[in-house]
Design goal:
globular; seven-stranded mixed beta sheet; mainly beta; 0% helix
Length: 127
């Protein structure tokens, strides 16, 4: 019933930009904090960014601070990740995830804190 569908991935050169979208359905979107995670080949899934249910606070992994921006449009049940100044080390499958707001005041960085996950979208940064 619940679906999170990522889009916007692709191949970009270092220094380029991509905007990822995650459209949610089957849930009351404003009841959930939303997070972005990524997983590179041979690596564990890692936290990238998150945003509180209302959009009033955002959180970022240190390596993406100043380059990535997470935002949401609750009226459209969509969360976004604007990625600028992309680096080869940003190459990964990017996933969005939903964390029920009633359990925690902040979204959290652990994969276990998120109830629902999308299928992911590939981001490749290469010249």
């Amino acid at each position: 019933q619940v679906q999170l569908v990522e889009s916007g991935g692709g191949l970009v050169q270092p220094g380029g930009s991509l905007r990822l979208s995650c459209a949610a359905s089957g849930l009351t979107f404003s009841m959930y904090h939303m997070g972005w995670f990524r997983q590179a080949p041979g690596k564990e899934r890692e936290f990238v960014a998150s945003i509180r249910w209302s959009g009033d606070s955002t959180y970022y992994e240190d390596s993406v601070k100043g380059r990535f921006t997470v935002s949401r449009d609750n009226a459209k049940s969509t969360v976004y990740l604007q990625m600028n100044s992309l680096k080869p080390e940003d190459t990964a499958v990017y996933y969005c995830a939903a964390n029920l707001r009633g359990r925690t005041a902040v979204p959290g960085q652990g994969t276990g804190e998120y109830r629902y996950w999308g299928q992911g979208t590939q981001v490749t940064v290469s010249s």
